[in-house]
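BUG: 3D viewer hangs when loading the predicted structure for this chain

Environment: internal workstation, default settings.
Expected: structure renders.
Actual: progress bar stalls at 90%.

Input used:
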Amino acid sequence: MSILDLKVPVIGESVTEVTLSKWLKSDGDIVMIDEPLCEFESDKATLEFPAEATGKLTIVAAEGSDLKIGSLVARIDTSVSPSAAAPAPSPAPAKEPAAAAPVAATNTSQNYATGTPSPSAGKILAEKGVDPKSVQGTGVDGRITKADALNASSSPTPVPTEAATEQKPIPASPIISAFSRVERREKLSRMRRTIAKRLVSAKNNTAMLTTFNEVDMSEIMKLRSKVQDKFVAKHGIKLGFMSIFAKACAQVLLEMPEVNAMLDGEDIIFHEYADISIAVSTPTGLVVPPIHNVESLGFADVENKIKKLADKARDGKLTLEEMSGGTFTITNGGIFGSMMSTPIINEPQSAILGMHAIIERPVAVQGQVVIRPMMYVALSYDHRVIDGSSSVTFWSK
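Structure tokens produced before the viewer hung:
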């Protein structure tokens, strides 16, 4: 017998602990080399942990457990070959051959992968509210792929009450009974715990202040309407507000280096480039991957990078390198309808811009009251690095 210990690998320089968020295999399964076994959730991203050899899996660490780098996760008995563990095929029945056609639905020798979504597919199905049992997998051994999830109907097949009870101790119900006293407890995900620590740290360890202003979006909206068709035809992507704000901020950041700086002990680090982090909402929390050298990119480049990073973030495919860095952050609560908010600094950065919903409001223009599409904007900044006069000057630029 040859036993191989599987341990939590070194994921990144700053990552010392991960959470085993989900097992993709069951104890005793026969696994193939490089086949995903489980998902690790680090401070910044969700990562798949592949098998290092072929053999029989023995699970050691439980789902939801926090593991240090180097901790034992599972063992693989490499002396067990897939062929030896596979059950002998049953002879086909002599009668009613047509009944054997729907193999995917009735074959009792299906393995774990059958009907199981990949990590990215699982997230997409969860966002759509689609039950994986209603999706036919086209991947290896019937596994549900990302393409299957994208093509799945957003109207889920009703799940029997018994099945729902097996999946969750307390079935989710859109109707709450009168005078309900039901409570449920869930462990915070590692990403949510990290977000909480970083937000509290930013509030406690920075002299954070927010200055507000309002922007008349009329000219920007006219510009987008004028060039949108040509822009899409040329670049294959729409011109959005985020790239316009990112490019404008990048120019100002180079003109006002203190807003683009960060504290490091008793030193201030000034950046002669604008790496702008874009806040992206995902099912597991808010992430802020940066776009490097925005000052040197065109609008289409910025839009494509935003889309690529946002797609990877929602699929849980962002790497640690893609999550690292950034000299300034932009967050857009307006996509959720927020009219005004106070964004919290993304440490160690010194400032963050908050965009909000565009709302038609009466404003005074040259002595006349007119209706204009207006947006409130907020700049939160570390007063240790940025003076109040600089924050106001930022808007005038």
